[in-house]
TrEMBL record:
InterPro entries, per database record: Kelch-typ_b-propeller
Gene name per UniProt: Vigan.10G127800
Start-end of Low complexity biased regions: 46-57
Database matches in SUPFAM superfamilies: Kelch motif (SSF117281)
Name of the molecule in the record: F-box domain-containing protein
Top-level taxon of origin: Eukaryota
Region (Disordered): 41-66
Transmembrane segments: none
Length: 411
C-alpha cells in the first residue's frame, strides 16, 4: 500500500480539523470580516485545500506508477535487467506486472514461441500465420502480408489433397518459399520472410525459377531448395539445387550447386533435413517405396542415403540442433530416433496423437508435431519423454509449425 508523504498535509485530516475545531477560527482574522467577506474567504480556503489535495493525489499516483515500473528496488533498471535475464521467463510472468512487461520488451532476451501456419477448418481457401506464447498460453495473429492473399491451399482440381505451402525457419526468421496460386502457378518468385523480433515482413532474393513441390531445407544460416516444378515441368528445374545464405552480407542471390542425378524429387513437397553438414531427403512421403539422397555440403556432392536411414523414413523427419534425427511413423504414431553408428532407428514412444503426422520441427529439446490431432509438443529432453497437446484457435487446423524467438508485444 502506498502511504501519504509524511511531510505533506493530509487533506482528510485538515478537513476534519476545520469542521470540528472552532478554536482554529476563533483566533483567525476571518472572524472580524463581514459575512460576505467571510464567505468568500471560506471558499478561497476550500479552493486552497482542494488544490493541495489534487497536488498530493497526483504525487501519490506518480509514486505508485514509479513503483510499478521499478524492476528491483534499490537497483538501476539496467542492472536489475541483467539479474532477471537469467531467470525463467515463466516465473517472471507470474510474480510481477513490471517483470511481465519486461519479458515482452525488445531489450529482454527473447524466449522461444511456436509459429504456425493455420487454415480455417471449414474453408481451406486461405491461410493465416499465428504465434503461440508458451508463457501466457495465448495465440496472436501475425501481421498479414499482401502476398499471402494469393496463396491457395485447396483447389477443385485436387479434391483429395491440400496444395503445398512450404516454409522453413533459418537464422531466427520464418521463411515462406513455395506455394500455389489460384491458376496453379508458383505463388512466390522470391522468399517471403517474417522477422519475429521486429514483427515485419521482407523479401529474399529472386529465384531463378519459382517453383512448387520442391525439397526445402536448412543448414545453419543457409537455405537450400532442390528440384520442384515451375509453371511447367522442366528437367533443369527438377534436377537443380540452389543455396541462399540468409546472413551473408552478399546474401541477395541464390548460389547454384551440384545438380541431382535425375528429376524424381519433384513429385511432392518434401523436407531436406539438415543433419551433420548434410541434407537428407526422400522423393515421396509415407510408407510408399521411395528413393533417398544425401547432399554433402563440404564436398558439394550427392550420395545415396544409407539403407537403414531410408528404411525407417516413414513420416516427417527433423534434426535436433542438426545433430540428432527423429522421425514420426505417420501410420503407427511412433516416434523414433536415428542411431548413425548402427544405421537404425530406435523407438522412443508411441501415442495416438502422433498418428497421421504431416510435419515435424525440432528445437531446444522439444519436437513439435503437426498431425490430424492438431499440434503436439514432445519433450525428449526428459525421461520418459512427455507429450503436451497445444490447444489451437477455435475453427482452425494446422498446416505447419516452427519454433522461433517471440515477437515483442506491440508488434
Amino acid at each position: 500500500m502506498c502511504l501519504p508523504d509524511q511531510n505533506q498535509p493530509h487533506f482528510l485530516s485538515l478537513s476534519l480539523s476545520l469542521s470540528l475545531s472552532p478554536s482554529l477560527f476563533s483566533s483567525s482574522p476571518f472572524m472580524d470580516m463581514p459575512d460576505t467577506q467571510q464567505h468568500h474567504s471560506h471558499l478561497h480556503l476550500q479552493s486552497k485545500f482542494q488544490s493541495e489535495s489534487s497536488s498530493n493525489n497526483s504525487k501519490r499516483r506518480k509514486h505508485r506508477q514509479e513503483q510499478e515500473h521499478v524492476l528491483i528496488a534499490g537497483l538501476p533498471d539496467h542492472i536489475a535487467q541483467l539479474c532477471l535475464s537469467s531467470v525463467n521467463p515463466s516465473l517472471l510472468f507470474s510474480i510481477s506486472h513490471s517483470w511481465r512487461r519486461l519479458i515482452y520488451s525488445p531489450s529482454f532476451p527473447p524466449f522461444f514461441s511456436l509459429y504456425a501456419i493455420l487454415s480455417p477448418s471449414k474453408s481451406h481457401s486461405f491461410i493465416e500465420f499465428h504465434t503461440f506464447d508458451p508463457i501466457s498460453h495465448t495465440w496472436r495473429i501475425l501481421p498479414r502480408h499482401p502476398h499471402l492473399h494469393h496463396l491457395l491451399l485447396r483447389h477443385p482440381s485436387f479434391l483429395s489433397r491440400n496444395l503445398s505451402v512450404q516454409s522453413v525457419s533459418a537464422a531466427g526468421r520464418l521463411i515462406l518459399l513455395a506455394a500455389t496460386t489460384h491458376n496453379l502457378s508458383p505463388a512466390l518468385p522470391r522468399p517471403l520472410i517474417f522477422h519475429p523480433l521486429s514483427g515485419t515482413w521482407s523479401f529474399g532474393p529472386m529465384l531463378a525459377a519459382p517453383r512448387r513441390w520442391c525439397a526445402l531445407g536448412v543448414l545453419g544460416p543457409a537455405v537450400y531448395v532442390a528440384s520442384g516444378i515451375g509453371a511447367h515441368f522442366s528437367i533443369h528445374v527438377a534436377r537443380s539445387l540452389e543455396k541462399w545464405d540468409v546472413r551473408s552480407p552478399n546474401g541477395d542471390v541464390w548460389e547454384k550447386k551440384t545438380d541431382l542425378k535425375d528429376g524424381r524429387f519433384s513429385r511432392e513437397a518434401i523436407d531436406a533435413v539438415g543433419w551433420r553438414q548434410k541434407l537428407c531427403m526422400v522423393n515421396v512421403k509415407g510408407d510408399a517405396a521411395k528413393e533417398g539422397a544425401v547432399y554433402d555440403v563440404a564436398e558439394d556432392a550427392w550420395k545415396d542415403m544409407p539403407e537403414g536411414m531410408l528404411y525407417g523414413w516413414r513420416g516427417p523427419v527433423a534434426a535436433m540442433e542438426e545433430e540428432v534425427m527423429y522421425v514420426v511413423d505417420e501410420a503407427k504414431g511412433v516416434l523414433r530416433r536415428y542411431l548413425a553408428e548402427e544405421d537404425a532407428w530406435e523407438e522412443i514412444l508411441e501415442n495416438k496423437r502422433l498418428k497421421g503426422a504431416e510435419q515435424l520441427a525440432a528445437e531446444k529439446g522439444k519436437l513439435c508435431v503437426v498431425s490430424t490431432s492438431g499440434i503436439s509438443v514432445v519433450d525428449v529432453a526428459v525421461s520418459p519423454p512427455r507429450i503436451i497437446p497445444v490447444l489451437l484457435p477455435e475453427g482452425f487446423e494446422p498446416v505447419a509449425v516452427h519454433v522461433l524467438p517471440r515477437t515483442p508485444v506491440g508488434h
